[in-house]
Amino acid sequence: MAAIEMKNIVKQYGDGFPAVNDVSIDVEDGEFLILVGPSGCGKSTLLRMIVGLEDITDGDMVIGGKKVNDLAPRDRNLSMVFQNYALYPHLTVYENIAFPLRLANKPDSEVDEKVREASKTLELDEHLERKPGNLSGGQRQRVAMGRAIVRDAEAFLFDEPLSNLDAKLRGQMRTEISRLQKRLGITTVYVTHDQTEAMTLGDRVAVLKRGVLQQHATPRELYENP
Ligand code: ADP
Ligand code: ADP
Questions:
Q1: How large is the ipTM?
Q2: What is the per-residue DSSP string for 41-94?
Q3: Ligand 1 center to residue 17 CA distance, Å?
Q4: Ligand 1: which residue has its CA nearest to atom 18?
Q5: Measured from the CA of 45, which atom of ligand 2 is nearest?
């Protein structure tokens, strides 16, 4: 069973051309899927429909074998990592990672155990008392992922997380995300308009054009058959 199944997904805003037009994609358990294409091709809209931030006009979204069309974002057990990471500047790294557990009213002992475990995996254990403003870009990225993993989410979703960074840092962060994703083995859907990012990060790449799925293949297959 695929972790995420998009079945004939359509999104129509108003009466214009569909932003997403009959897209079907399976994301396997532990797979890193890239959604790529030019600005306006429907990538963010598709990602937002997976997360539940956007209603689906037609088709079915199935996560972990369960149809989620009518489920609110908080009931889908997914973790979205935003472009600016959306960290709380006044909270420590510890409390930033703990945040979803606090929201869920978990007992302190459980919060502590999960935060320690995540920060060890992410090599943040020496920075737990620092605030985001004093961290490097890479460390902030790891805090954002820490917050995502303490929830035991079914998947990570990234919307152009690196597009505000300069080329050098972007390269470093790309390596970092790829390494962490493989280590955690968590299903990931990642939106970008950057071809290089798509070809270096993805296990598979889904290419969208004007809302239509053009190709869905491994980077190697795309190189050999562009
Ligand atoms: P991408 O992420 O690939 O840049 P989007 O998913 O943001 O593309 O947008 C796809 C299309 O849907 C574009 O034509 C965009 O203008 C349109 N669109 C996106 N969001 C809305 C909205 N809230 N209302 C109306 N049209 C929208
Ligand atoms: P991106 O290309 O980074 O996805 P956009 O500029 O397409 O960013 O979208 C930014 C926000 O504006 C999104 O929340 C999207 O839903 C909304 N939006 C995009 N296009 C339209 C549109 N034609 N009408 C109304 N809202 C839109």
A1: 0.69
A2: SSHHHHHHHHHTSS--SEEEEEETTEE-TT--GGGS-EEEE-TTTT--TTS-HH
A3: 11
A4: 19
A5: 16
